[in-house]
Amino acid sequence: MTISLCVIAYNEEKTLTRLFECITAQSFDKKSTELVFVDSASSDDTKKLFLDFAEKHRRDYLDISVLDNPRKIQSAGWNTAISAASGDVIIRLDAHASIPPDFLSKNAQLISEGEYVCGGARPNNIDDPTPWKETLLAAEGSMFGSSIASYRRRGTGKQYVGSLFHAAYRREVFAKAGGFDVSLGRTEDNELHYRIRQNGFKICQSDDIISYQNVRPTLGLMLSQKYGNGKWIGLTVGKCPGCLSFFHFVPFCFVLAIFICLIMYVLSLVTGLWLLSLPLYALAAAYLAADMLMTAAAVITSEHKNVTMLLLPFIFPLLHIVYGWGTVIGFLSLPSWKKSLDGSAEKEIEQVRLAVAAGGNRE
Hints:
14% strand, 2 domains, Spore Coat Polysaccharide Biosynthesis Protein SpsA, Chain A, eight-stranded mixed sheet, three-stranded mixed sheet, 50% helix, 363 residues, alpha/beta
């Protein structure tokens, strides 16, 4: 079995050294490992680091290639990598991730047992720990601050799921389902895995496999990420509603509830009907109770407690409101966005399928 390990990067010079250490430490046979690096028009030394690594380690591996993604968007980068990969198994790995030494071998084992798509939990971690980063990690690691998705935590054994991060795919999967939809952002994983399931493949998550993703290092970057995630949830409704679940819309429902309750509160002031103000008080009380309970849980389960975690009750609502507002904007932008679609994304999905079926294309 040969594995193509694919990494897409945009301005990731600060994270690549650690990632390279993870890659070279893998217990899986290097001569059966192909590395496919894709630089997304970085303005820093990302491509240089890729090229330097390839020059230094080329003889150690089955092959190492460094490719370009001039469109910058991540889904286009993955399509470039998948189209070029020649391995029996294709694994995608984010540039700001880290993996244990048995990551490739554990995935290879599951594939050899008959799985077509597999992977494991992908909890968050941080680099260069500080008290504030620990607090952001606690927020992101909490179900209240992120989601209940199974890939965020271990302890579920072996199960079949709807989606995975850092997954391993038999190349037959892409040869049948095609590549990523480049018209989508942030939700391209959901759509691809939905299409993979529609093509008859199961997605296996095992507790034996784990990888890690660095949490955003500042609150501003985390809020920007949440806003973008929320916006693409709203837009994706116009193209692939089946790849989304109810839980994707919880922040939107929260923002909508706030808006409705505020209107009713204003009406109570205008009309003097105090009963109209009760929904706002009820919502505030219910959310405050949940906020305090989940803050306590996040602090208790955190490995490194510090005084900045007292800000978690304020961070959680910020994350929820920003995400929900992003979905509102996504819904409002949906008509114009759908008009901009020209069918080229579907053509690229098919092009990737044909490239994989042909055995890889680096042109």
